[in-house]
């Protein structure tokens, strides 16, 4: 490695390269005259000034100019400053190469900053190489830096090995060591180990710091049964140590922890007691309410945040959380309305917001609004993000625009399981079985392993088009080749497939072999097939089983049985089931339809109060009825004339 870096550093700069560097520096630098090249001191002073003003880009431009004018000018004070400004592996490696070329790589400050630069960008292997070559005795700081490299590189096992070596080597772990080790495990979702390490830290005599408390609190919601007790224990520990009210990020972690555990009273209390609140604090509370399904409360907090004024105002995270909460609770109309309000405030949505809104458009079949959101993603250069692309495929597919869904799918550079499932499902729900099966084969050739959702989609496609043999083959393939245990949805698809094809006996036998008790959807599929094929005997046997089952308390199946009897002229039985339904306190969900007009969805529900625009709607409806009657009479008169 050193030989390669030396070779890179020793390459001379050409005349044109020097001129480009001088021009670039002159464009960014506030002074037009550079320091003399006989001493590194004024250059180092300028480098420090750029870093102090959080302008690492100008610091690097200055360093490049310094090397272009005098390659041997940087000293042991210059290189650490340049390394602090290094934003990438390429630049860190280049400065490392310069240090080797100048013979300064063994200097303690330079070596320490090379190690820190590699650690900061997660280059654990390079950091380890530098660490092992350190010429001086390793301090707690250098051990901590190496552990940080493994933490950022998401390798908690290696971080733990380094920690053990540190202890054996006689170095004393401090609060930073423990916090870094905790973070390494938290980054990888190893939450139980985070809590064990926090306990070990306390047992070792190290009191930790506010950062350690915050990391431990973030792991509590994933601790299983004793999660709340552990969270309260760490809360009490932080309160005693004075970090709860002294550090805003600890209060934020507490709000998140209690919110994720559903303890909204505790979360609100911590929020109210916080001395200072930033956008993260407000968003933590909003997100917690939204995740708990308390969407009205989340919206209230958003309104409080907006009315408060000042520099802390609702941002895209705040709005996305509330929009996502309403979408998750099924209130897509409110989610879309909030999205419009967000746009009116000139806030640019992120990929999470757009994916949520696209999901809402798909559920409401609002294709025009979905198309507008698609246009927004293109303008915002977010249309290539997998989360957005999957949302677009799903939205176009559910809205019946399968060609548009396929166009988005074909434009995807990388496709995950959700992408394939969405496209196969789009074909399946619209009866395009051949296309769905072809897509399934393409998925297999692409090396993507199907899951249960994939097979629900292809079995549903087979069911809609009567591909019985293909459906049976896929069901067996799912169980035998992919080792996926059939769920209730898979059995429902198979019963529907066999029943629609008139194989009612096979469908009934499949239900008998199910390892779980059939749910109303399974019985409903068989009953519907009996109705389609007029098989009264099979219907009678199925009805008896449905009425005996615990799951019979379902309005849908009761209504299907009632209608089935009525269609066969068995009015007494139909009336009996209707009375049973009423006595059981079951009510049929009212019919609902909706229409999208000017990007707004209007819902019509049977039995509900009419919309404010009802008078105008019914006026137009009556006009249309009259026109249809006139056309009908005109057509009748024309036929009579011909005769």
From TrEMBL:
The keyword Ubl conjugation does not apply. PPR repeats lie at residues 139-173, 174-208, 278-312, 315-349, 416-450, 451-486. Keywords: Repeat, Transit peptide. InterPro entries: E_motif, PPR_At4g14850-like_plant, PPR_rpt, TPR-like_helical_dom_sf. This is Pentatricopeptide repeat-containing protein. The lineage of its organism: Eukaryota, Viridiplantae, Streptophyta, Embryophyta, Tracheophyta.
């Amino acid at each position: 490695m050193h030989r390669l870096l030396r070779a890179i550093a020793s390459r001379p700069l050409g005349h044109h390269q020097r001129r480009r560097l001088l021009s670039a520096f002159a464009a960014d630098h506030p002074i037009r005259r550079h320091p003399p090249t006989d001493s590194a001191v004024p250059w180092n002073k300028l480098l420090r000034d750029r870093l102090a003003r959080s302008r690492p880009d100008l610091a690097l431009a200055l360093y490049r100019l310094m090397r272009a004018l005098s390659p041997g000018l940087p000293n042991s004070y210059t290189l650490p400053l340049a390394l602090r400004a290094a934003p990438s592996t390429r630049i860190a490696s280049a400065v490392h190469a310069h240090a080797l070329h100048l013979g300064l790589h063994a200097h303690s400050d330079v070596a320490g900053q090379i190690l820190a630069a590699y650690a900061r960008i997660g280059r654990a292997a390079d950091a380890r190489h530098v660490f092992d070559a350190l010429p001086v005795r390793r301090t707690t700081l250098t051990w901590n830096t190496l552990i940080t490299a493994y933490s950022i590189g998401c390798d908690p096992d290696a971080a733990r090995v380094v920690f053990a070596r540190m202890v054996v080597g006689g170095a004393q772990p401090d609060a930073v060591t423990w916090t870094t080790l905790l973070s390494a495990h938290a980054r990888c979702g190893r939450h139980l180990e985070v809590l064990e390490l926090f306990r070990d830290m306390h047992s070792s005599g190290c009191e930790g710091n506010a950062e350690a408390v915050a990391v431990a609190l973030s792991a509590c919601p994933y601790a299983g049964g004793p999660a709340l007790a552990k969270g309260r224990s760490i809360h009490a520990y932080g309160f005693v140590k004075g970090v709860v009210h002294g550090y805003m990020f600890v209060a934020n972690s507490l709000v998140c922890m209690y919110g994720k555990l559903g303890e909204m009273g505790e979360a609100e209390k911590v929020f109210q007691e916080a001395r200072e609140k930033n956008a993260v604090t407000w968003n933590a509370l909003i997100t917690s309410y939204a995740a708990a399904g308390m969407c009205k409360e989340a919206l209230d907090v958003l309104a409080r945040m907006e009315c408060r004024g000042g520099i802390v105002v609702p941002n895209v995270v705040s709005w996305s959380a509330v929009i996502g909460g309403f979408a998750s609770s099924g209130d897509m109309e409110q989610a879309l309305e909030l999205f419009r309000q967000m746009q009116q405030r000139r806030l640019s949505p992120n990929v999470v917001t757009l994916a949520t809104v696209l999901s809402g458009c798909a559920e409401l079949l609002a294709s025009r609004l979905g198309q507008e959101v698609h246009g927004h993603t293109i303008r915002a250069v977010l249309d290539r993000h997998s989360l957005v692309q999957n949302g677009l495929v799903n939205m176009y597919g559910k809205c019946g625009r399968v060609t548009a869904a396929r166009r988005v799918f074909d434009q995807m550079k990388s496709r995950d399981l959700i992408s394939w499932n969405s496209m196969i499902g789009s074909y399946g729900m619209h009866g395009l079985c051949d296309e769905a099966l072809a897509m399934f084969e393409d998925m297999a050739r692409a090396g993507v392993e199907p899951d249960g959702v994939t097979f629900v989609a292809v079995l549903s496609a087979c069911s809609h088009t009567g591909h019985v043999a293909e459906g049976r083959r896929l069901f067996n393939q799912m169980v035998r080749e992919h080792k996926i245990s059939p769920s209730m949805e898979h059995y429902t698809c198979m019963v529907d497939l066999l029943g629609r094809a008139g194989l009612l006996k096979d469908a009934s036998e499949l239900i008998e072999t199910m390892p779980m008790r059939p749910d109303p959807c399974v019985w409903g599929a068989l009953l519907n097939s009996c109705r389609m094929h007029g098989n009264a005997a099979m219907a009678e046997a199925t009805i008896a089983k449905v009425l005996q089952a615990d799951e019979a308390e379902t309005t849908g199946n009761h209504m299907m049985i009632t209608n089935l009897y009525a269609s066969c002229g068995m009015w007494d039985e139909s009336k009996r089931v209707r009375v049973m339904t009423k006595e059981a306190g079951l009510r049929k969900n009212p019919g609902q339809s909706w229409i999208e007009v000017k990007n707004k969805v209007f819902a019509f529900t049977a039995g509900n109060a009419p919309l404010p625009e009802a008078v105008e709607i019914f006026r137009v409806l009556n006009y249309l009825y009259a026109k249809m009657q006139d056309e009908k009479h005109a057509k009748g008169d024309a036929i009579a004339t011909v005769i």
